[in-house]
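Deliverable D2.4 — example input (structure tokens):
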């Protein structure tokens, strides 16, 4: 991991080579099981519309076409603050190299915060 920086009181930044700078919500990190992440399922429970740009406020989304009509309160806080979210990248980005790097950085961040 090249760098860890604190964004604000609830998020840290990891700096990855393949995906760039990503935000890590600290509460999500605390409950995230690195060994059980799956593509298409965000750790924060968000639907991914914030990652894909198909926002829950649009008509298609509300009708269940994009995010299965989850409410906006399920949207990723980091993406709503205009950060790229590490957990959204793990869920919705298909680049396996990025995933491995992000998981490695999340593991290192967890260990550093626990120390």
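Example output (designed residues):
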């Amino acid at each position: 991991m090249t760098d860890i920086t604190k964004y604000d009181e609830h998020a840290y930044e990891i700096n990855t080579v393949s995906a760039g700078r990503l935000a890590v919500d600290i509460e999500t990190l605390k409950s995230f099981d690195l060994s059980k992440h799956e593509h298409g399922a965000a750790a924060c429970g968000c639907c991914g519309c914030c990652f894909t740009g198909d926002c829950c406020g649009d008509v298609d989304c509300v009708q269940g076409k994009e995010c299965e009509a989850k409410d906006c309160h399920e949207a990723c806080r980091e993406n709503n603050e205009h950060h790229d979210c590490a957990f959204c990248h793990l869920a919705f980005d298909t680049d396996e190299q990025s995933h491995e790097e992000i998981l490695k950085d999340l593991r290192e961040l967890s260990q550093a915060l626990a120390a």
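The two ends are 16 Å apart (CA to CA).
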